[in-house]
Amino acid sequence: FALLERIRGSRDARIRALPVVVISGNEGLDSKNRALKLGANDFIGKSADAPEVMSRLDGVLRLVNASKELEASRQALDRTVTHDPVTGALTPHYLLTEGRKHFALAKRHSSELSIMALRLDTYDDITLAAGKDIADVVITRIAKLIMAKVRAEDSVARTAQATFMVVAVATSAAQMLQLAQRLHQELSQAKVNYRE
Q1: Which run of H or of E encompasses 5?
Q2: Does 196 score more than 70 pLDDT?
Q3: Contact 162, 168 (CB under 8 A)
């Protein structure tokens, strides 16, 4: 159990993801539940015969392979999605594409380009107090406010759970600071009611 805890608690993602099958002479329900709760992929009693052990190991390996394939598919899909499904802002991957275009245009015309990062520091507090669904409603309203305050040619992306990036073409640092101050003021005065 201690080894299993260390594997699942490892800082190395590859170690954390190792498939673990516990084979034990202690076949009691408590041992099985504890092993599964700690993250074992399967629990086999020592009284199991060889064909059953091989079958169970094969099943775990198939599950691990399917999980890897699913993760690879999810990552490939993430690279093709252009807008965040929660907020409607651009995805980080698509922001890179748009950012490269904005940078090339600014360089070609010797114009300014500004980038601003915004983070909702209280997102985790809201999630704890009201739940993820309500926190997502708040983050969506903030995204809509940000997108309403920028020009059509600018790009707004949700780059993390509660972080947004704004890339503004032909915008000086002073102009971006003014936008940041206006957004901060409006957000600090915004009201979102939840259960009164």
Answers
A1: helix 2-8
A2: no
A3: no
Closest CA to 89 of 20, 154, 30, 135: 154
The model's pLDDT over 166-183, given as tens digits with 9 standing for 90+, comes to 999 999 999 999 999 999
- H-helix or E-strand spanning residue 37: helix 29-37
> Is the CB of residue 130 less than 8 Å from the CB of residue 74?
no
Beta bridge partners of 24: 45
Task: Report strand pairing: 155-160 vs 163-169.
Answer: antiparallel
How far apart, in Å, are the Cα atoms of 144 and each of 29, 149, 181? 51, 9, 17
In this prediction, residue 128 has a pLDDT band, given cuts at 50, 70 and 90, of: very high
> What is the rounded CA–CA span in Å between residue 150 and residue 91?
17
Q: pLDDT tens, 68-80?
A: 888 888 877 767 7
Cβ neighbour number for residue 79 with a 10 Å cutoff: 10
Residues whose CB falls within 8 Å of the CB of residue 120, separated by 6 or more in sequence, listed in order: 138, 139, 142, 162, 163
Cα three-residue angle 40-44-49, rounded to 5 degrees: 155
CA angle 11, 56, 5 (to 5 degrees): 25
> What residues pair up with 23 in beta bridges, in sequence order?
44
The structure's pTM equals 0.60
Q: How far apart are CA 142 and CA 87, in angstroms?
A: 9
